[in-house]
Amino acid sequence: MNLVDQHPATEHIELTVPGRPEYVVVVRLAAAAIAGRMAFSFDDIEDLKVAVGEVCTAAILEGGPSVRITFEVATEALSVTVRHHAARPRRHAAEEELDKLLVRVLMDEVATDADGGERITRLVKRTTAT
Fold first, then answer.
1. 50-71: per-residue pLDDT in tens?
2. Quick one: DSSP state of residue 41?
3. pTM for this structure?
4. Residue 116 backbone zone (phi > 0: left; psi -120 to 50: alpha; other: beta)
5. Is residue 84 within 8 Å of residue 64, measured between CB atoms?
6. CB-CB contact of 83 with 120 (8 Å)
7. CB under 8 Å to 68, separation ≥6 — which residues?
8. What is d(CA 103, CA 7) in angstroms, rounded to the nearest whole number?
9. Which class does domain 10-126 fall in?
10. Cα–Cα distance, 58 to 99 (Å, whole number)
11. How far is residue 66's CA from residue 56's CA, in Å, rounded to a whole number?
């Protein structure tokens, strides 16, 4: 059981953006603003912005007409779920693996699942070391 499951989220913030690259900055700024209200260091906030930006960019490159982002704010962690419907096949495997590696290095937990035609990526960043 992970930390987020032990401490249910106290706040949910949802954001839906068009599937266009110019909206990635909106999601990155939202992530930074939410994390800034928590006990994250400057470096952790920057890591979160990069990871969320990478996942949203990947969703847009797969042709999602829109991308839905849910932030779950808990006492000791921020969970970000990115959902989109992929209209195009996934990118080149080597490029995709490099992006996944970067996100895994920056976050404490990363999981990607599919639910029908919807692709779901969940990122978790903890405010404290466990």
1. 999 999 998 998 887 899 999 9
2. -
3. 0.83
4. left
5. yes
6. yes
7. 14, 15, 16, 82, 83, 84
8. 23
9. alpha beta
10. 9
11. 10
